[in-house]
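ERR on first pass: missing label on line 2. Operator R.T. fixed the label and resubmitted. Corrected input:
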Amino acid sequence: MNKNLVYNKHCPICNSMEVIDKKKIKSKHSEINLLFHLKYCKKCGHKFLSSFPKKSILIVFTRATQNLYLVMKKMKNYKKKILLIKVFLK
Ligand SMILES: [Zn+2]
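pass 2 clean. output:
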């Protein structure tokens, strides 16, 4: 289990423990390939991931995104494209 993830034992919508693992989720990104299960709630029918990011990680990600936005606001268009390529296509 990744230390930045919280495992979902119950449905995030109705809180039922009657959930089943449907299948592992494949990804072309090796870091997350087969890391998550698709889960299904037998009570309400909601489908969700087996794990969610921890709140602390979401806060870090949100701050990083806000900082990136502030930097980009001051940049010219061609420099924004170069920065986006460096950040997201690494
Ligand atoms: Zn449910």
